[in-house]
Amino acid sequence: MSNPHDLVRFGWNESVSHAFSTLDLEHCEPGRIVRVDRGECDVVTASGQIRAHTGAHSVCTGDWVTVRDSAVTDVLPRRSAIVRASASIRSESQVLAANVDTVVIAAALDTDVDLGRIERFLALAWESGAMPVVVLTKADATLDVSHTLADVAAIAPGATVLAVSARTGDGLDVLVAAVDGTVALVGQSGAGKSTLANALLGEDLFATGQVRGGDHKGRHVTAHRELVPLPGGGTLIDTPGLRGVGLWDAADGIGRAFSEIDVLAEQCRFGDCNHAAEPGCAVREAVERDELPQRRLDSYRKLQRENEWMAARTDARLQAERTRQVKVLSRSLKEHYRNR
């Protein structure tokens, strides 16, 4: 096997080394997926980058894998993963990035900052197992940065919130100090993720584009999730802009994103309080005392309902699939006995 220390720039550490030590590497080589595209992936190994077939393996950018003869042979268990509900009509999940340490949530200051969308991204990030950092980009485009910073900090308990201008460089040093390990950039199209990524990398590696003047929506310039080394250590994954962020099994993430509501809920008279019209609801009382914004509670309940609906929909899909399999087996058995 080639020297694995050549992979340090791509995140190799003692933990990764220990995980690979449990595998038989006599006829294969460890590596990390830096890009996935239609059944194939780019894998960086100690001997260089190769193009490999994924085969039956479900892989994504950031996965640690073994490869042999230009094919993925094994995928290491993920220690963290950013997962959202698939945009398709089927009840499926989509892994955006794996083995991530920091999730940078980008929101642009050159338009109205959507607090509800940031809360949704925060739930996604907390659920992944990584540490979220909210970055308000294009700080040079507004004079009232402090007010928006305070608003966002109020809805992001436990997360770092800062303002950055990739154009002027203001705040970049603070961001570099706040992130660690493998960093995934997420956010809506037009949030300036690729521009921010290029600023962190010190070169124009990712394509950037202008937002539309009418609605300030961005174009999907980044088409793939790609992992690249950062010059000061660590790695970066730039992701395509997300117009929709459906939650997938994110109860814990919602709880972390709205931790102050969960603390209040412990004081409710009923353990299964829905914080609607139940007597003795500590959450509603906090709203009435203006200690908790009504918008914050509405957002919390909306994400909870969505997560519960998706869980129920997934269970229904799995039950339907089991029923279909039983019917197929039954028909096969009948055909077998009929033709004996």
What is the structure about, briefly put?
It is found in: Cytoplasm. The chain has helices at residues 14-21, 115-128, 145-154, 172-178, 193-201, 251-257, 259-265, 282-288, 294-338, and strands at residues 29-37, 40-45, 48-53, 64-67, 72-75, 81-85, 93-98, 102-108, 131-137, 160-163, 182-187, 226-229, 235-238.
Name given to the CATH homologous superfamily of one domain: P-loop containing nucleotide triphosphate hydrolases
CATH class group of one domain:
Alpha Beta
Question: In order across it, which strands form the biggest sheet?
Answer: 10-9-8-11-13-12
Number of strands: 13
CATH topology of one domain: Rossmann fold
- Estimate the mean pLDDT confidence: 87
Q: What is the overall silhouette?
A: globular
Helical region count? 9
Radius of gyration (Å): 23 Å
Q: How do the SSEs run, as a string of H and E?
A: HEEEEEEEEHEHEHEHEEHHHH
Strand content: 15-25%
Distance between the termini: 54 Å
CATH architecture of one domain: 3-Layer(aba) Sandwich
Keywords: Cytoplasm, GTP-binding, Hydrolase, Metal-binding, Nucleotide-binding, Ribosome biogenesis, RNA-binding, rRNA-binding, Zinc
Cofactor: Zn(2+)
GO molecular function: GTP binding; GTPase activity; metal ion binding; rRNA binding
Family: Belongs to the TRAFAC class YlqF/YawG GTPase family. RsgA subfamily.
How would you describe what is shown here?
One of its GO terms (biological process) is ribosomal small subunit biogenesis. Among the domains are: 4-75, Beta Barrel (OB fold (Dihydrolipoamide Acetyltransferase, E2P)), CATH 2.40.50; 81-238, P-loop containing nucleotide triphosphate hydrolases (Rossmann fold). It starts with 13 loop residues before the first helix and ends with a helix. With 340 residues, the protein is an alpha/beta fold. It has helices at 14-21, 115-128, 145-154, 172-178, 193-201, 251-257, 259-265, 282-288, 294-338; strands at residues 29-37, 40-45, 48-53, 64-67, 72-75, 81-85, 93-98, 102-108, 131-137, 160-163, 182-187, 226-229, 235-238. The model is unreliable at 212-222 (pLDDT under 50).
